Amino acid sequence: MNVHWTMADEALRSITVTGSERNEPVIVSDYSEGLRCIGIGTDAAVFTYDRTPGYAFKIYSDLALALGKREMEKQVYERLEGIPYFPVYYGCGERYLVMSHESGVTLLDCLLEGIPVPEQAILDVEEARALVRSRGLNPRDIHLKNVILQSGRGKVLDVSEYALEGDDHRWEHLVWAYRVVYPGIEGIKIPAWVLDAIKNGYARLDQANLSLDDFSRRVSELFSKFLK
């Protein structure tokens, strides 16, 4: 790249990112000219800066910093060096990490806009997960919002939970839905309210004592009503 990411440091210092103990999305305030927020999570917000194209800056809330989350994610990126399915890690500032800015549509956007998701993108994420495990890490919390399409290939954006234990099964269930449910809706624009209903139902799956097959039938019924 022709510019160095440290040119953004002064502008980034003006940003305030406030976290919540209730695990709600952070609140961003005190924007500086040239900074654009491209993503908000529960620990941090991600920005680009007009004067440093090609870079993305993940700024953590004070709460997340106190819990060591920036340092943990930094170490994960360092261990993933060279794997092409993730952003490139460049360095860090006092409150932020610096990665390559990856353009593309998320899998969630694909559903909302009716963009077909190729099989290759799913296979790419599967390979990415295998490579993560080969580095002694745990590829979890992979969902529709943090997988993007780039020229028909898949790339994973968020690695913040890879140092944690346990399998949340989110990606495995998405692959299952891709095989079982998606063929019937491929290329169709799905309204946000339909996806929200599925998301809320999925969150209560264990509580409802439903199997994935039972849940699939309910989802199919919902799509049938929508497609009429």
Automatic annotation (TrEMBL):
Domain of life: Bacteria
Family matches, as InterPro entries: Kinase-like_dom_sf
Name this polypeptide is given: Serine/threonine protein kinase
Organism: Paenibacillus tianmuensis
